[in-house]
Structure formats: C-alpha cells, structure tokens
Amino acid sequence: MIVTPAVRHVAAGAAALLLALPVPYAPAALAAPAAAPPGAPAGVAEPTPPARHVVDPARLGRPGTQVQPLRGAPAVPALSALSWVVADASTGDVLAARDAHKPLPPASTLKALFALTALPGHDPDERHTVSDAELTGIGEGSSLVGLKEGYTYKVSDLWNGVFLSSGNDAVHVLAAMNGGWTAMSRKMQEKARALGARDTRVVSPDGYDAPGQVSSAFDLAVFGRAGLQDPQFTRYCSTRYADFPAGSWSYGIANTNRLLTGESGVARYPGLIGVKNGYTSNAGNTLIAAAKRGSRTLVVSVMNPQGGGGLAVYEEARELLDWGFAADGKVRPVGSLLPAARASARPSAAAERPAVRAQAGPPAARDPLHALAASAGTRGEPARAAAKDASASSRTAGLPLALVGAALGAALSLWLWRRFGARGN
C-alpha cells in the first residue's frame, strides 16, 4: 500500500478530529426514555384516568322517555303527562325526562320566568299605587289576587299575589312598573335565552293563552332551578299563606300549589319548596315543583297530564320526586340544565377517536416525527410547524454524524498504513 505525504497529513488531521469530537449529537426525541415510576413495569404506559361521563345534548330531543339506569335503579314511573323532566337542582343533571323539548303552552308556570326577570327591579318594601291603566287588558277568566285602583301596595304584596294567588292583575301591575307589557315580554325572552331555555316563546308575560306562546318541560325546569338560587324567589314560592292588604283591612290568601299546602285532598310533599303551578283550558295543568331531602334538592316539571283529573299533575310530580330521590347514584344523567354544560357536552372529534393501544417503549424512540405528530393531535398549523422544525433538526443532526463517519474512515486508513505501509504492495 503506497501512502503519499499528503495522505498521511489528511489521516493525521482526521485522527486528531476524531479525538477532539464530542459525543455525537442526538435529538431529544432519540434520547433514552425517562425512568419509569417506582413499581411500574418497564416499557408499559401508565394507565389513563377514566374519562368523566359525557352527556349527549341531543338525547333530550329524542321522543319518548330518556333514562340511563345503573344496577339497582328504580323503574321510572309511567305517567300520563305529555312531557316531564326530573333533575338535580344543585348540579343541573337531568336524571330522566320524557319529550323534554316538546313545545307546549305553559300556563302560569311562565310566571316563574316573569319573576326571574322582574324581581331585581324593585325593593320588596317599595310602595306603589295602582292605576286604572295598569289593570286593563287582563284576560277573561284570569286568576286574580284582587288589586284595586287607587290602593297602595308594597312590592312584596304584589309578589305574594303572583306566587300564591297566581294573580294576573299583580303581573300586569309589576310589568307596568318594569317598562310595560311589550318591554316585559322582550325582557323575558332575553332572560330565557340567557338561561339556555330556547324552547320558550313569550307573548303574554302572565302565562295566559296566546297564539304562539309555548315553553317546554326542559325550560320550565331551567326556570325552577334558576329561581331556587334567588333567596327572594325561594321565599315567595315557598310561602303557603299570607295576609293581603285591602285598604284598612286585609284578607288571607293561600298558595294554589296543593303539594305545598295539602289542600283539596292532595297530601303535602315532605320538604317541598315550591315552585309554581298553572292551568288554562289550552295548556291543561302544568307544574314546576322542587323539594329538598337531606343535602339533595330536586326540581321537576310536569306538563298536561292526560288522565286522573285536575289533581293528577300533583300526583305525577310526587311520583317523579320520589323516583328522583330513590335513584340517587343509580342513574347516569341524560342531559343538563346548565347552558355551559350543554354547549360542551358533545365530545370533540379527537375525543371521539378510539385510543391508541400503548406499546412497549416510548413511540419517540421509534420515530420522532411520528411521535411529535401524535402528541400534537389535531391542532392544525402548530402541529405541522412543529413537525417541520423536527425534520429540520434531524437534517442538521446528520451533519456531525457525517463528519464522524469521515473521521473514522481516515483514522482507519492511518492505522492500516502504520501497520502495513512499510511492506508496500
């Protein structure tokens, strides 16, 4: 083997370069995997915590009864109401429902939305003198508390008239004090939308039958739950009896919610809070009811029972409350009364894809670009940019590796020359 002085010089320089080179650069994605936590088997991915139960917001729009029972759950009562909902008032979880979004006339249960809208407008001790104009336009056959023109009432008296006697005259006066009938209809509509109640169309704020006026069992449950979060609302809707002023004297009024008072042969429901009952010839009987047992509060809504007479709405609400308390922890929710929960209830496309089975060893050690893309998920441009950067890093890492290869070749040539070069060919 003939080696020229130039070759010797190059080989010597390569050997020096080989000795001077640091440990070859390795991208982070190619580095050794981190040590597994103590007690964990080598090469096995840590278990993923179980995901929280995801509620399909479309479920409550399906016809028929919706319930997801677990082992030991009581059977859902068979009711005659056209629609109903039973929900946990604290969490907003809908435990069961039937035709929850079916549009139906609400009757005086719409007064719950009226109260949510108008209650903040005036102090309970404020006094107001009723005018004749405020008592005009009340629907024929309306329930009344007995307001008189020229009489002065406290705002709290007017609200007792709304909740206990379901007085449309009290609603008309309070609506006049809050901008008028048309303005109040608009405000109630806005309030319903803010609460996520999208089935409700307000035409007559007192709930009196009007063309196009509808709500749903779902929306009524939303109104009932929202009302329970307002101490004033709760105080009025849970009042069984009150004295109503009439000038120099007063007379007693009783709440028309039989589950609350135990009137007309309907037994009182233990722990009942309220909320509001209603009836018109078009709507039939409707009811929002809430009850507390221990640390748990339920809200139910019942719309237009088809059997059992005028008191069936109370007995069917009773059955739903009994079922809801008995089903505690034994059913999965089928919906939510919370606007935010309903908006985020449907899982994202990434969450709906099946999970990738864990493999022995970290994916990054097998293919850094694949691992980066997998960790980026479906984030679009940021993911593509990250993959591009990783590719560039891989190309850059190839430069020192190529130099190492050249140096190794030169060093080998130098070694061979030293051992065999004196012999020639």
Comma- or semicolon-separated keywords:
single chain; 425 residues; alpha+beta; Beta-lactamase; seven-stranded antiparallel sheet; two-stranded antiparallel sheet; 37% helix
Molecular structure report:
With 425 residues, this protein is an alpha+beta fold. It folds into 2 domains: 5-29 and 362-423; 59-344, DD-peptidase/beta-lactamase superfamily (Beta-lactamase), CATH 3.40.710. The protein contains 14 helices and 13 strands. Strands 1, 3, 4, 9, 10, 11 and 13 form a 7-stranded antiparallel β-sheet that branches. A hairpin with a 3-residue loop joins strand 9 (272-280) and strand 10 (284-293). It is globular. Residues 1-51, 343-399 and 420-425 have low confidence and may be disordered.
Write the layout of secondary structure elements.
Layout: H1 5-20, E1 65-66, E2 68-69, E3 81-88, E4 93-98, H2 111-118, E5 127-129, E6 152-154, H3 155-163, H4 168-177, H5 181-194, H6 217-228, H7 231-237, E7 241-246, E8 249-254, H8 258-261, E9 272-280, E10 284-293, E11 296-305, H9 312-326, E12 331-332, E13 335-336, H10 339-344, H11 349-352, H12 363-366, H13 368-376, H14 381-420
Antiparallel strand pairs: 1-4, 2-12, 3-4, 3-11, 4-13, 5-6, 7-8, 9-10, 10-11
Helix pairs in contact: 1-14, 2-5, 2-6, 3-4, 13-14
Top-tier CATH class of the largest domain:
Alpha Beta
Number of domains: 2
In which range does the helix fraction lie?
25-40%
Biggest β-sheet description: 7 strands, antiparallel
CATH superfamily of the largest domain: DD-peptidase/beta-lactamase superfamily
Morphology call: globular
Task: Give me the CATH architecture of the largest domain, please.
Answer: 3-Layer(aba) Sandwich
Give the ordered list of helices and strands: HEEEEHEEHHHHHEEHEEEHEEHHHHH
| Average pLDDT metric | 79
* Rg, Cα atoms, Å: 37 Å
Rounded to the nearest angstrom, the distance between the terminal CA atoms is 5 Å
Q: How much of the residues is beta strand, in percent? A: 15-25%
Number of helices: 14
Question: Remind me, CATH topology of the largest domain?
Answer: Beta-lactamase
Low-confidence stretches: 1-51, 343-399, 420-425
Q: How many DSSP E strands?
A: 13
